[in-house]
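Its record is set out here:
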Amino acid sequence: MTLDVRKRFALGVDYGTGSVRALVVSTDDGEELASHVWAYPTGVGGVVTDPDDPNLARQNPSDYVTGFFESVGNAVRKAKQYKGFETDRVVGIGVDSTGSTPLPVDQQGLPLSFQERFQRDPAAMAWLWKDHTAFAEADEITDAVRRHELPYLDNCGGRYSSEWFWAKLLRCSRAHPSVFHAAYSWVELADFVPAFITGTTDPSTMSRGICAAGHKAMYDERWGGLPSEGFLRSLGDGLAELRGRYAPAASQNDKPVGGLTAEVAERVGLPEGLPVATGAFDAHHGAVGAGCRAGTLVKIIGTSTCDCAVAPSDADVTDVTGLCGIVKGSIVPGMWGIEAGQSAVGDLFRWFVEHFAGGNPEREEDPHETLTAEAEHAPAGTSGLLALDWNNGNRTVLADPLLTGLLLGQTLHTTPAEVYRALIEATAFGARTIIERFESIGVPVNEVVNCGGIAEQNSLLMQIYADVCGRPMKTSASPQTCALGAAVFAAVVGGAHPDVPTAQASMCRVKPRVFEPDPKNQAVYAELFQLYTDLHDAFGGVRETAPLGHVMKRLLEIRRRERGVA
Protein backbone atom coordinates (compact mmCIF):
# COMPACT_ATOMS: atom_id res chain seq x y z
CA MET A 1 0.00 0.00 0.00
CA THR A 2 1.20 3.48 -0.85
CA LEU A 3 0.76 6.29 1.66
CA ASP A 4 0.42 10.03 1.18
CA VAL A 5 4.01 11.26 1.29
CA ARG A 6 2.94 14.25 3.35
CA LYS A 7 1.65 12.19 6.25
CA ARG A 8 3.21 12.19 9.68
CA PHE A 9 2.94 9.45 12.27
CA ALA A 10 2.91 8.88 16.03
CA LEU A 11 3.49 5.87 18.23
CA GLY A 12 1.27 4.93 21.15
CA VAL A 13 2.45 2.29 23.63
CA ASP A 14 -0.17 0.75 25.91
CA TYR A 15 0.85 -1.34 28.95
CA GLY A 16 -2.14 -3.50 29.88
CA THR A 17 -2.67 -6.14 32.54
CA GLY A 18 -1.47 -9.05 30.41
CA SER A 19 0.48 -7.50 27.55
CA VAL A 20 1.98 -4.39 25.99
CA ARG A 21 0.96 -3.16 22.55
CA ALA A 22 2.43 -0.56 20.24
CA LEU A 23 0.45 1.28 17.58
CA VAL A 24 1.71 3.29 14.61
CA VAL A 25 -0.95 5.79 13.53
CA SER A 26 -1.21 8.71 11.15
CA THR A 27 -1.49 12.05 12.91
CA ASP A 28 -3.35 13.45 9.89
CA ASP A 29 -6.37 11.15 9.73
CA GLY A 30 -6.00 8.44 12.39
CA GLU A 31 -5.18 5.68 9.92
CA GLU A 32 -3.65 2.81 11.87
CA LEU A 33 -0.70 1.40 9.94
CA ALA A 34 0.65 -1.27 12.20
CA SER A 35 0.55 -2.67 15.70
CA HIS A 36 2.20 -5.38 17.71
CA VAL A 37 1.13 -7.05 20.96
CA TRP A 38 3.61 -8.79 23.25
CA ALA A 39 2.34 -10.89 26.16
CA TYR A 40 4.18 -10.72 29.47
CA PRO A 41 5.79 -14.14 30.05
CA THR A 42 6.11 -14.03 33.84
CA GLY A 43 3.39 -15.51 36.02
CA VAL A 44 -0.09 -16.51 34.88
CA GLY A 45 -1.33 -14.22 32.15
CA GLY A 46 1.53 -11.87 33.02
CA VAL A 47 0.57 -11.66 36.70
CA VAL A 48 2.52 -13.09 39.64
CA THR A 49 0.05 -14.41 42.20
CA ASP A 50 0.10 -16.24 45.52
CA PRO A 51 -2.30 -19.18 46.13
CA ASP A 52 -2.25 -18.35 49.84
CA ASP A 53 -3.19 -14.72 49.30
CA PRO A 54 -5.88 -14.00 46.69
CA ASN A 55 -5.29 -10.26 47.13
CA LEU A 56 -1.73 -10.38 45.76
CA ALA A 57 -1.01 -9.39 42.13
CA ARG A 58 2.49 -8.40 41.01
CA GLN A 59 4.38 -8.07 37.72
CA ASN A 60 7.97 -8.49 36.64
CA PRO A 61 9.44 -5.09 35.61
CA SER A 62 11.81 -6.78 33.19
CA ASP A 63 8.73 -7.70 31.15
CA TYR A 64 7.99 -3.99 30.80
CA VAL A 65 11.42 -3.23 29.36
CA THR A 66 11.49 -6.22 27.03
CA GLY A 67 7.90 -5.48 26.10
CA PHE A 68 8.78 -2.00 24.92
CA PHE A 69 11.53 -3.24 22.62
CA GLU A 70 9.43 -6.12 21.29
CA SER A 71 6.18 -4.23 20.72
CA VAL A 72 7.63 -1.00 19.36
CA GLY A 73 10.37 -2.64 17.31
CA ASN A 74 7.94 -5.02 15.62
CA ALA A 75 5.29 -2.33 15.05
CA VAL A 76 7.86 -0.12 13.34
CA ARG A 77 9.06 -3.01 11.18
CA LYS A 78 5.48 -3.75 10.11
CA ALA A 79 4.85 -0.08 9.31
CA LYS A 80 7.89 -0.06 7.03
CA GLN A 81 5.99 -2.40 4.69
CA TYR A 82 3.91 0.60 3.61
CA LYS A 83 5.46 2.57 0.80
CA GLY A 84 5.74 6.14 2.00
CA PHE A 85 6.27 5.37 5.68
CA GLU A 86 9.61 6.66 6.90
CA THR A 87 10.80 6.68 10.48
CA ASP A 88 11.92 10.29 10.20
CA ARG A 89 8.24 11.23 9.79
CA VAL A 90 7.37 9.77 13.20
CA VAL A 91 6.87 12.81 15.43
CA GLY A 92 6.72 11.29 18.91
CA ILE A 93 5.90 8.50 21.34
CA GLY A 94 3.18 8.37 24.00
CA VAL A 95 2.91 5.82 26.80
CA ASP A 96 0.10 4.67 29.05
CA SER A 97 -0.13 1.91 31.63
CA THR A 98 -2.31 0.27 34.23
CA GLY A 99 -2.46 2.06 37.54
CA SER A 100 -1.86 2.47 40.26
CA THR A 101 1.07 0.13 39.52
CA PRO A 102 4.06 1.40 41.52
CA LEU A 103 7.44 -0.32 41.59
CA PRO A 104 10.36 0.06 44.02
CA VAL A 105 13.53 1.44 42.42
CA ASP A 106 17.13 2.11 43.38
CA GLN A 107 18.88 5.50 43.41
CA GLN A 108 19.33 5.35 39.63
CA GLY A 109 15.62 4.75 39.16
CA LEU A 110 15.99 1.13 38.09
CA PRO A 111 13.70 -1.58 39.51
CA LEU A 112 14.95 -3.45 42.58
CA SER A 113 13.97 -6.69 40.85
CA PHE A 114 16.82 -6.09 38.39
CA GLN A 115 19.17 -6.91 41.29
CA GLU A 116 19.98 -10.59 41.75
CA ARG A 117 18.94 -10.72 45.40
CA PHE A 118 15.45 -9.43 44.59
CA GLN A 119 14.80 -11.11 41.24
CA ARG A 120 12.30 -13.63 42.57
CA ASP A 121 10.82 -11.57 45.37
CA PRO A 122 7.25 -10.52 44.46
CA ALA A 123 7.48 -7.62 46.92
CA ALA A 124 10.33 -6.14 44.85
CA MET A 125 8.31 -6.34 41.65
CA ALA A 126 5.63 -3.94 40.42
CA TRP A 127 2.52 -3.90 42.60
CA LEU A 128 -0.16 -4.30 39.93
CA TRP A 129 -3.28 -2.14 40.02
CA LYS A 130 -5.45 -5.04 41.17
CA ASP A 131 -3.23 -5.95 44.11
CA HIS A 132 -5.50 -5.54 47.17
CA THR A 133 -3.07 -6.65 49.88
CA ALA A 134 -3.09 -3.10 51.30
CA PHE A 135 -6.81 -2.96 52.13
CA ALA A 136 -6.13 -2.39 55.84
CA GLU A 137 -3.57 0.32 55.09
CA ALA A 138 -6.02 2.07 52.75
CA ASP A 139 -8.59 2.23 55.54
CA GLU A 140 -5.93 3.53 57.90
CA ILE A 141 -5.01 6.32 55.48
CA THR A 142 -8.67 7.24 55.09
CA ASP A 143 -9.16 7.35 58.87
CA ALA A 144 -6.02 9.46 59.36
CA VAL A 145 -7.08 12.04 56.78
CA ARG A 146 -10.53 12.32 58.31
CA ARG A 147 -9.23 12.44 61.87
CA HIS A 148 -6.88 15.32 61.10
CA GLU A 149 -9.50 17.04 58.89
CA LEU A 150 -7.12 17.25 55.95
CA PRO A 151 -8.15 17.82 52.31
CA TYR A 152 -6.13 14.97 50.81
CA LEU A 153 -9.17 12.85 49.87
CA ASP A 154 -11.10 15.67 48.23
CA ASN A 155 -9.97 14.48 44.81
CA CYS A 156 -10.74 10.79 45.30
CA GLY A 157 -14.23 10.53 46.66
CA GLY A 158 -13.41 10.76 50.35
CA ARG A 159 -11.87 7.30 50.64
CA TYR A 160 -8.45 5.91 49.82
CA SER A 161 -8.15 2.59 47.95
CA SER A 162 -6.02 -0.48 48.41
CA GLU A 163 -5.23 -0.22 44.69
CA TRP A 164 -3.40 3.08 45.15
CA PHE A 165 0.14 4.35 45.63
CA TRP A 166 0.56 5.20 49.35
CA ALA A 167 -1.44 2.23 50.62
CA LYS A 168 0.81 -0.17 48.72
CA LEU A 169 3.97 1.54 49.95
CA LEU A 170 2.73 1.45 53.54
CA ARG A 171 1.88 -2.23 53.18
CA CYS A 172 5.35 -2.99 51.84
CA SER A 173 6.99 -1.15 54.72
CA ARG A 174 5.22 -3.45 57.18
CA ALA A 175 5.03 -6.77 55.41
CA HIS A 176 8.34 -6.60 53.48
CA PRO A 177 10.68 -4.21 55.34
CA SER A 178 13.83 -5.51 53.61
CA VAL A 179 12.41 -4.50 50.22
CA PHE A 180 11.02 -1.22 51.47
CA HIS A 181 14.28 -0.07 53.04
CA ALA A 182 16.32 -1.20 50.02
CA ALA A 183 14.21 1.00 47.74
CA TYR A 184 15.42 4.54 47.24
CA SER A 185 12.04 5.53 45.80
CA TRP A 186 8.86 4.22 44.19
CA VAL A 187 7.61 5.16 40.73
CA GLU A 188 4.45 4.46 38.80
CA LEU A 189 4.76 2.25 35.73
CA ALA A 190 3.27 5.11 33.68
CA ASP A 191 6.20 7.29 34.75
CA PHE A 192 8.90 4.62 34.66
CA VAL A 193 8.64 3.69 30.98
CA PRO A 194 8.93 7.26 29.59
CA ALA A 195 11.82 7.89 31.99
CA PHE A 196 13.60 4.66 31.04
CA ILE A 197 13.44 5.24 27.28
CA THR A 198 14.61 8.86 27.63
CA GLY A 199 17.36 8.19 30.19
CA THR A 200 15.74 10.43 32.81
CA THR A 201 15.28 7.89 35.59
CA ASP A 202 16.63 9.89 38.55
CA PRO A 203 13.67 9.48 40.97
CA SER A 204 14.10 12.95 42.45
CA THR A 205 13.69 14.67 39.10
CA MET A 206 11.85 12.05 37.07
CA SER A 207 8.79 13.45 35.33
CA ARG A 208 5.70 12.42 37.29
CA GLY A 209 2.43 12.65 35.41
CA ILE A 210 -0.49 14.52 36.95
CA CYS A 211 -2.75 11.59 36.07
CA ALA A 212 -1.03 9.10 38.40
CA ALA A 213 -0.04 11.69 40.98
CA GLY A 214 -3.45 13.30 41.27
CA HIS A 215 -5.66 10.24 41.06
CA LYS A 216 -3.62 7.83 43.16
CA ALA A 217 -0.99 9.68 45.23
CA MET A 218 -3.13 12.49 46.71
CA TYR A 219 -1.20 15.14 44.79
CA ASP A 220 -2.68 18.62 44.35
CA GLU A 221 -1.06 22.03 43.97
CA ARG A 222 -3.67 23.45 46.37
CA TRP A 223 -1.91 21.78 49.29
CA GLY A 224 1.62 21.92 47.96
CA GLY A 225 1.73 18.74 45.92
CA LEU A 226 1.96 15.45 47.80
CA PRO A 227 0.65 15.08 51.38
CA SER A 228 2.89 16.79 53.94
CA GLU A 229 5.92 15.13 55.47
CA GLY A 230 4.26 15.30 58.86
CA PHE A 231 1.20 13.43 57.68
CA LEU A 232 3.23 10.76 55.88
CA ARG A 233 5.48 10.36 58.92
CA SER A 234 2.42 9.76 61.07
CA LEU A 235 1.50 6.79 58.88
CA GLY A 236 4.80 4.96 59.14
CA ASP A 237 8.56 5.11 59.06
CA GLY A 238 10.08 5.88 55.70
CA LEU A 239 7.12 7.40 53.86
CA ALA A 240 8.10 10.99 54.65
CA GLU A 241 11.57 10.48 53.17
CA LEU A 242 10.02 9.28 49.91
CA ARG A 243 8.22 12.58 49.53
CA GLY A 244 11.56 14.32 48.99
CA ARG A 245 12.48 11.82 46.27
CA TYR A 246 9.51 12.72 44.11
CA ALA A 247 9.59 15.53 41.54
CA PRO A 248 8.22 18.69 43.16
CA ALA A 249 5.74 19.41 40.36
CA ALA A 250 3.65 16.93 38.38
CA SER A 251 3.26 17.40 34.62
CA GLN A 252 0.23 17.33 32.36
CA ASN A 253 0.21 14.66 29.69
CA ASP A 254 0.87 17.03 26.79
CA LYS A 255 4.33 17.88 28.10
CA PRO A 256 7.46 16.07 26.84
CA VAL A 257 9.60 14.01 29.22
CA GLY A 258 12.64 14.07 26.95
CA GLY A 259 13.97 12.45 23.81
CA LEU A 260 14.56 8.81 22.96
CA THR A 261 18.08 7.72 23.93
CA ALA A 262 20.47 6.55 21.24
CA GLU A 263 20.52 3.00 22.61
CA VAL A 264 16.73 2.66 22.75
CA ALA A 265 16.30 4.35 19.38
CA GLU A 266 18.70 1.94 17.70
CA ARG A 267 16.96 -1.11 19.15
CA VAL A 268 13.49 -0.09 17.94
CA GLY A 269 14.52 1.52 14.67
CA LEU A 270 13.48 5.09 15.43
CA PRO A 271 15.39 8.40 15.41
CA GLU A 272 17.40 9.38 18.47
CA GLY A 273 15.87 12.29 20.36
CA LEU A 274 12.30 11.50 19.30
CA PRO A 275 10.00 13.36 21.78
CA VAL A 276 8.32 11.22 24.44
CA ALA A 277 5.16 12.48 26.16
CA THR A 278 4.48 12.38 29.89
CA GLY A 279 2.87 9.06 30.80
CA ALA A 280 -0.65 8.47 32.10
CA PHE A 281 -3.01 5.65 32.95
CA ASP A 282 -4.45 3.48 30.19
CA ALA A 283 -8.08 4.34 30.86
CA HIS A 284 -7.44 8.07 30.76
CA HIS A 285 -5.57 7.83 27.47
CA GLY A 286 -8.31 5.49 26.28
CA ALA A 287 -10.83 8.21 27.02
CA VAL A 288 -8.84 10.61 24.86
CA GLY A 289 -8.56 8.03 22.07
CA ALA A 290 -12.34 7.55 22.20
CA GLY A 291 -12.91 11.27 21.76
CA CYS A 292 -13.77 12.23 25.32
CA ARG A 293 -15.21 15.75 25.56
CA ALA A 294 -17.81 17.59 27.61
CA GLY A 295 -21.06 15.58 27.66
CA THR A 296 -19.41 12.32 26.60
CA LEU A 297 -18.66 9.53 29.06
CA VAL A 298 -16.07 6.98 27.96
CA LYS A 299 -16.27 3.45 29.33
CA ILE A 300 -13.16 1.35 28.95
CA ILE A 301 -14.54 -2.16 29.34
CA GLY A 302 -12.14 -4.97 30.10
CA THR A 303 -11.57 -7.17 33.14
CA SER A 304 -12.87 -4.15 35.04
CA THR A 305 -14.12 -0.81 33.75
CA CYS A 306 -12.86 2.69 34.07
CA ASP A 307 -15.36 5.44 33.36
CA CYS A 308 -13.93 8.82 32.38
CA ALA A 309 -15.49 12.22 31.78
CA VAL A 310 -14.28 15.80 31.62
CA ALA A 311 -15.68 19.09 32.87
CA PRO A 312 -14.68 22.72 32.28
CA SER A 313 -11.89 24.01 34.49
CA ASP A 314 -14.25 26.41 36.27
CA ALA A 315 -16.78 23.71 37.19
CA ASP A 316 -17.34 23.01 40.90
CA VAL A 317 -16.74 19.27 40.90
CA THR A 318 -14.25 18.64 43.72
CA ASP A 319 -14.88 16.73 46.94
CA VAL A 320 -17.54 14.32 45.63
CA THR A 321 -18.12 11.17 47.66
CA GLY A 322 -17.81 7.96 45.70
CA LEU A 323 -15.82 9.07 42.66
CA CYS A 324 -12.35 7.58 42.27
CA GLY A 325 -10.67 10.77 41.19
CA ILE A 326 -11.25 14.37 40.11
CA VAL A 327 -8.01 15.89 38.87
CA LYS A 328 -7.42 18.91 36.67
CA GLY A 329 -5.55 18.01 33.49
CA SER A 330 -5.52 14.25 34.02
CA ILE A 331 -7.46 13.43 30.83
CA VAL A 332 -7.71 16.48 28.59
CA PRO A 333 -5.24 19.22 29.58
CA GLY A 334 -6.93 22.26 31.08
CA MET A 335 -10.14 20.41 32.01
CA TRP A 336 -11.18 18.48 35.08
CA GLY A 337 -10.64 14.77 34.55
CA ILE A 338 -13.21 12.66 36.40
CA GLU A 339 -12.76 8.94 36.98
CA ALA A 340 -15.04 6.20 38.24
CA GLY A 341 -15.24 2.49 37.52
CA GLN A 342 -16.36 -1.04 38.28
CA SER A 343 -14.02 -3.64 39.76
CA ALA A 344 -15.35 -6.66 37.88
CA VAL A 345 -16.93 -6.80 34.43
CA GLY A 346 -15.03 -9.06 32.06
CA ASP A 347 -13.62 -10.82 35.13
CA LEU A 348 -17.17 -11.40 36.36
CA PHE A 349 -18.28 -13.03 33.11
CA ARG A 350 -15.12 -15.15 32.93
CA TRP A 351 -15.54 -16.26 36.55
CA PHE A 352 -19.05 -17.54 35.83
CA VAL A 353 -18.08 -19.28 32.60
CA GLU A 354 -15.01 -20.99 34.03
CA HIS A 355 -16.56 -22.14 37.30
CA PHE A 356 -20.23 -22.72 36.55
CA ALA A 357 -20.88 -22.88 32.82
CA GLY A 358 -18.42 -25.50 31.63
CA GLY A 359 -15.88 -23.06 30.31
CA ASN A 360 -13.01 -25.07 28.84
CA PRO A 361 -10.32 -23.21 26.89
CA GLU A 362 -9.62 -26.38 24.87
CA ARG A 363 -13.16 -26.48 23.45
CA GLU A 364 -13.62 -25.08 19.97
CA GLU A 365 -16.76 -23.09 20.74
CA ASP A 366 -16.50 -19.94 22.81
CA PRO A 367 -18.77 -20.35 25.86
CA HIS A 368 -19.22 -16.57 26.06
CA GLU A 369 -20.61 -16.53 22.52
CA THR A 370 -22.86 -19.52 23.24
CA LEU A 371 -24.27 -18.03 26.44
CA THR A 372 -24.75 -14.63 24.80
CA ALA A 373 -26.72 -16.18 21.93
CA GLU A 374 -28.93 -18.08 24.38
CA ALA A 375 -29.35 -15.03 26.63
CA GLU A 376 -30.82 -13.07 23.72
CA HIS A 377 -33.86 -15.36 23.99
CA ALA A 378 -34.44 -14.42 27.66
CA PRO A 379 -35.75 -10.83 27.35
CA ALA A 380 -35.57 -8.26 30.10
CA GLY A 381 -37.35 -9.29 33.27
CA THR A 382 -38.27 -12.83 32.18
CA SER A 383 -35.65 -14.66 34.25
CA GLY A 384 -36.69 -13.26 37.63
CA LEU A 385 -33.01 -12.82 38.46
CA LEU A 386 -31.18 -9.85 39.93
CA ALA A 387 -27.47 -9.68 40.77
CA LEU A 388 -24.99 -7.38 42.46
CA ASP A 389 -21.77 -6.97 40.45
CA TRP A 390 -19.38 -6.93 43.42
CA ASN A 391 -17.45 -10.17 42.98
CA ASN A 392 -14.24 -8.13 43.13
CA GLY A 393 -15.56 -5.46 45.47
CA ASN A 394 -17.05 -2.10 44.52
CA ARG A 395 -14.85 0.62 43.06
CA THR A 396 -17.55 3.24 42.54
CA VAL A 397 -19.62 4.65 44.14
CA LEU A 398 -19.21 2.75 47.42
CA ALA A 399 -15.41 2.41 47.18
CA ASP A 400 -15.36 -0.79 49.23
CA PRO A 401 -13.04 -3.53 47.86
CA LEU A 402 -14.32 -6.10 50.38
CA LEU A 403 -17.95 -6.16 49.21
CA THR A 404 -19.07 -9.39 47.57
CA GLY A 405 -21.48 -10.42 44.83
CA LEU A 406 -25.06 -11.60 45.07
CA LEU A 407 -27.49 -13.52 42.84
CA LEU A 408 -31.17 -13.43 43.75
CA GLY A 409 -34.16 -15.23 42.24
CA GLN A 410 -32.79 -18.50 40.91
CA THR A 411 -35.04 -21.57 40.73
CA LEU A 412 -34.56 -25.19 39.72
CA HIS A 413 -35.34 -24.08 36.17
CA THR A 414 -32.81 -21.23 35.98
CA THR A 415 -30.41 -21.70 33.06
CA PRO A 416 -26.75 -20.67 32.78
CA ALA A 417 -27.69 -18.25 30.00
CA GLU A 418 -30.21 -16.51 32.26
CA VAL A 419 -27.57 -16.11 34.96
CA TYR A 420 -25.09 -14.84 32.37
CA ARG A 421 -27.59 -12.22 31.23
CA ALA A 422 -28.33 -11.25 34.84
CA LEU A 423 -24.61 -10.62 35.37
CA ILE A 424 -24.48 -8.42 32.27
CA GLU A 425 -27.50 -6.54 33.58
CA ALA A 426 -25.85 -6.14 36.98
CA THR A 427 -22.82 -4.48 35.41
CA ALA A 428 -25.19 -2.23 33.45
CA PHE A 429 -26.96 -1.25 36.66
CA GLY A 430 -23.57 -0.46 38.18
CA ALA A 431 -22.79 1.69 35.13
CA ARG A 432 -26.06 3.59 35.55
CA THR A 433 -25.28 4.19 39.23
CA ILE A 434 -22.05 5.87 38.16
CA ILE A 435 -23.79 7.98 35.52
CA GLU A 436 -26.30 9.21 38.08
CA ARG A 437 -23.48 10.20 40.42
CA PHE A 438 -21.81 12.15 37.60
CA GLU A 439 -25.01 14.01 36.81
CA SER A 440 -25.68 14.71 40.48
CA ILE A 441 -22.64 17.03 40.46
CA GLY A 442 -23.59 18.79 37.26
CA VAL A 443 -21.54 16.72 34.79
CA PRO A 444 -23.94 15.81 31.96
CA VAL A 445 -23.73 12.43 30.24
CA ASN A 446 -25.44 12.77 26.88
CA GLU A 447 -23.77 9.81 25.22
CA VAL A 448 -21.46 6.95 26.11
CA VAL A 449 -18.53 5.82 23.98
CA ASN A 450 -17.29 2.34 24.83
CA CYS A 451 -14.01 0.70 23.98
CA GLY A 452 -12.37 -2.64 24.59
CA GLY A 453 -12.90 -6.14 23.25
CA ILE A 454 -16.18 -6.75 25.07
CA ALA A 455 -17.72 -3.56 23.68
CA GLU A 456 -16.63 -4.49 20.16
CA GLN A 457 -17.71 -8.12 20.25
CA ASN A 458 -20.86 -8.32 22.38
CA SER A 459 -23.80 -6.48 20.84
CA LEU A 460 -26.19 -7.89 23.47
CA LEU A 461 -24.19 -6.24 26.23
CA MET A 462 -24.15 -2.93 24.35
CA GLN A 463 -27.93 -3.02 23.84
CA ILE A 464 -28.55 -3.87 27.49
CA TYR A 465 -26.30 -0.98 28.53
CA ALA A 466 -28.25 1.37 26.25
CA ASP A 467 -31.57 0.16 27.64
CA VAL A 468 -30.49 0.33 31.28
CA CYS A 469 -28.65 3.65 31.06
CA GLY A 470 -31.14 5.28 28.70
CA ARG A 471 -28.43 6.74 26.47
CA PRO A 472 -26.97 5.96 23.06
CA MET A 473 -24.06 3.57 23.24
CA LYS A 474 -21.28 4.14 20.72
CA THR A 475 -18.08 2.18 20.19
CA SER A 476 -14.63 3.54 19.45
CA ALA A 477 -13.53 2.77 15.92
CA SER A 478 -10.05 1.80 17.08
CA PRO A 479 -9.55 -1.68 18.54
CA GLN A 480 -6.62 -0.18 20.46
CA THR A 481 -8.14 2.97 21.86
CA CYS A 482 -5.72 3.36 24.77
CA ALA A 483 -2.71 3.17 22.47
CA LEU A 484 -4.45 5.62 20.13
CA GLY A 485 -4.89 8.05 23.04
CA ALA A 486 -1.19 7.73 23.81
CA ALA A 487 -0.47 8.49 20.16
CA VAL A 488 -2.63 11.62 20.40
CA PHE A 489 -0.30 12.98 23.08
CA ALA A 490 2.69 11.91 21.01
CA ALA A 491 1.27 13.96 18.14
CA VAL A 492 0.98 17.01 20.39
CA VAL A 493 4.48 16.83 21.91
CA GLY A 494 5.85 16.14 18.43
CA GLY A 495 4.26 19.27 17.01
CA ALA A 496 1.84 17.62 14.59
CA HIS A 497 -1.11 19.25 16.40
CA PRO A 498 -1.24 22.29 18.70
CA ASP A 499 -3.43 20.70 21.37
CA VAL A 500 -5.33 17.55 22.32
CA PRO A 501 -8.83 18.52 21.02
CA THR A 502 -7.36 19.35 17.62
CA ALA A 503 -5.49 16.05 17.53
CA GLN A 504 -8.64 14.18 18.56
CA ALA A 505 -10.61 15.77 15.74
CA SER A 506 -8.12 14.41 13.21
CA MET A 507 -7.24 11.06 14.77
CA CYS A 508 -10.25 9.70 16.72
CA ARG A 509 -13.44 8.10 15.35
CA VAL A 510 -16.43 6.03 16.47
CA LYS A 511 -18.03 3.15 14.60
CA PRO A 512 -21.15 3.93 12.56
CA ARG A 513 -23.38 1.54 14.53
CA VAL A 514 -25.07 3.18 17.52
CA PHE A 515 -27.09 1.20 20.08
CA GLU A 516 -30.19 3.25 20.86
CA PRO A 517 -32.33 2.57 23.95
CA ASP A 518 -35.42 0.43 23.36
CA PRO A 519 -38.38 2.11 25.12
CA LYS A 520 -40.01 -1.17 26.17
CA ASN A 521 -36.83 -2.57 27.67
CA GLN A 522 -36.08 0.78 29.27
CA ALA A 523 -39.34 0.60 31.21
CA VAL A 524 -38.61 -2.92 32.49
CA TYR A 525 -35.05 -2.06 33.42
CA ALA A 526 -36.20 1.06 35.26
CA GLU A 527 -38.16 -1.23 37.59
CA LEU A 528 -35.25 -3.65 37.98
CA PHE A 529 -32.82 -0.82 38.56
CA GLN A 530 -34.89 0.40 41.51
CA LEU A 531 -34.69 -3.08 43.02
CA TYR A 532 -30.94 -3.16 42.29
CA THR A 533 -30.62 0.18 44.07
CA ASP A 534 -32.47 -1.23 47.09
CA LEU A 535 -30.01 -4.14 47.26
CA HIS A 536 -27.07 -1.81 46.54
CA ASP A 537 -27.95 0.52 49.39
CA ALA A 538 -28.76 -2.23 51.86
CA PHE A 539 -25.81 -4.57 51.31
CA GLY A 540 -23.45 -1.70 50.55
CA GLY A 541 -24.16 -0.13 53.91
CA VAL A 542 -25.69 3.04 52.50
CA ARG A 543 -28.92 2.35 54.41
CA GLU A 544 -28.26 -0.42 56.90
CA THR A 545 -31.92 -0.62 57.93
CA ALA A 546 -33.27 -0.60 54.37
CA PRO A 547 -36.26 -2.97 54.01
CA LEU A 548 -35.80 -5.77 51.48
CA GLY A 549 -38.95 -7.81 51.97
CA HIS A 550 -40.45 -6.52 48.72
CA VAL A 551 -37.55 -7.38 46.41
CA MET A 552 -38.19 -11.06 45.68
CA LYS A 553 -41.96 -10.60 45.42
CA ARG A 554 -41.48 -7.73 42.99
CA LEU A 555 -39.07 -9.79 40.88
CA LEU A 556 -41.69 -12.54 40.67
CA GLU A 557 -44.34 -10.04 39.59
CA ILE A 558 -42.08 -8.67 36.85
CA ARG A 559 -41.20 -12.18 35.69
CA ARG A 560 -44.86 -13.24 35.43
CA ARG A 561 -45.82 -10.09 33.57
CA GLU A 562 -42.95 -10.24 31.07
CA ARG A 563 -43.59 -13.92 30.41
CA GLY A 564 -47.27 -13.19 29.84
CA VAL A 565 -48.36 -15.48 32.67
CA ALA A 566 -51.69 -14.59 34.28
DSSP finds 19 helices and 20 strands in the chain. The two ends are 64 Å apart (CA to CA).
